[in-house]
Amino acid sequence: MDELESSLHPDLFNQFLLFYLINSKKESQLIATTHNREILNNREVFRDDAIWFTDKNEDSATELYSLADFDSSVVRDTSNVLNAYKSGKLGGVPNLGDYYIDLDNE
After folding, report:
1. How far, in Å, CA of 78 to CA of 3, rounded?
2. DSSP state, 34?
3. What is the dihedral angle through the alpha carbons of 90, 45, 6, 64, rounded to the nearest 10 degrees?
4. 54 contacts 99 by C-beta, under 8 angstroms
5. Residues 57-72 pLDDT 10s
6. 17-42 pLDDT, tens digit each
7. Distance of CA 105 to the CA centre of its chain
């Protein structure tokens, strides 16, 4: 599902995920994309290997990696994943660059 949280209240988004996780069969799987960073605050719900990030490399190709790929020097069991993400430790954030556009050098 692409952008699972689209047009959903954040509480309904969380409710849907919990409903699915609690009521699905053992062999069920849900793959969803989201830009909802707050989902990273649900560490008690999701295992580290269930949270994946994407990042563009220098060739503009997309790289995919899991939260479980980080060692304990970056993310500990007690770490706040959302704060680590927002500070750039986990990648996956856009390079916004500068606000200034130099029109004289074009």
Report:
1. 28
2. -
3. 30
4. no
5. 889 899 999 999 998 8
6. 888 888 988 888 888 888 888 888 88
7. 37
Specify the pTM.
Answer: 0.75
Contact call for residues 91 and 57 (beta carbons, < 8 A): no
Beta-carbon contacts of residue 55 (< 8 Å; ≥ 6 apart): 62, 63, 65, 91, 92
Q: Which sign, positive or negative, has the C-alpha torsion 34, 39, 18, 63?
A: positive
Q: Which one-letter DSSP state was computed for residue 95? A: -
Q: In 88-102, which positions are buried (b, 16+ CB within 10 angstroms) versus exposed (e)? A: eebeeeeeeeeeeee
- The answer to whether the beta carbons of residues 41 and 81 sit under 8 Å apart is yes
List Cα–Cα distances, 9 to 6, 12, 13, 43, 82, in angstroms.
Answer: 9, 5, 6, 20, 19
Question: Which two three-digit tokens encode residue 49?
Answer: 């290997």
Structure tokens at 46: 């999701």
User: If residue 19 lies in a helix (H) or strand (E), which one and from where to where?
Assistant: helix 10-23
